[in-house]
Amino acid sequence: MVAQMNTLTIILIVLAAAAALFYLLMKISINRSISKVQQPPAEIPDDMVKCFSCGHVVPVESALEKKGRYFCGLKKSERDELQDE
């Protein structure tokens, strides 16, 4: 009788652990799929453009245009300094 109770206890513990593992995996999977949903891009005013290489929004007058793409004109080191501030 004691041997049967020990076996039953072990089976219940294994089933509970499997259920907990399944729950955690499903929760992680759902969180990953939710985080992949992209936010709509923010509205940019007509007199501003987004830099193709770094994403900064700059006025059209000060932006550099090449092949239909706009660039802010900042070097990478200058962009890094702006982001640190």
Quick structural gist:
The protein has 85 residues and is an alpha+beta fold. The chain is built from 2 helices and 4 strands. The protein is 51% helix and 14% strand.
Describe this protein's structure.
The protein has 85 residues and is α+β, with helices and mostly antiparallel strands. It folds into two domains: 1-37; 48-84, no CATH class. The protein has two helices and four strands; from the N terminus they run αββββα. The protein has helices at 2-35, 76-84; strands at residues 48-50, 57-59, 64-66, 69-71. The strands form two sheets. Strands 1-2 form a two-stranded antiparallel sheet. A hairpin with a 2-residue loop joins strand 3 (64-66) and strand 4 (69-71). The protein is rod-shaped. The termini are far apart.
Average pLDDT over all residues: 81
Q: Please mark out the parts with pLDDT under 50 across 5 or more consecutive residues, or reply none.
A: none
The chain-level structural class is: alpha+beta
Approximate shape: rod-shaped
Strand portion, in percent? Answer: 5-15%
- Order of secondary-structure elements: HEEEEH
Q: Widest sheet: strand order?
A: 1-2
Query: What is the count of structural domains?
Result: 2
**Oligomeric state as shown:** single chain
**In angstroms, what separates the terminal alpha carbons?**
71 Å
Tally the helices. Answer: 2
Radius of gyration of CA atoms, rounded to a whole number: 28 Å
Number of strands: 4
**Helix content class:** 40-55%
Sheet bearing the most strands, described? 2 strands, antiparallel
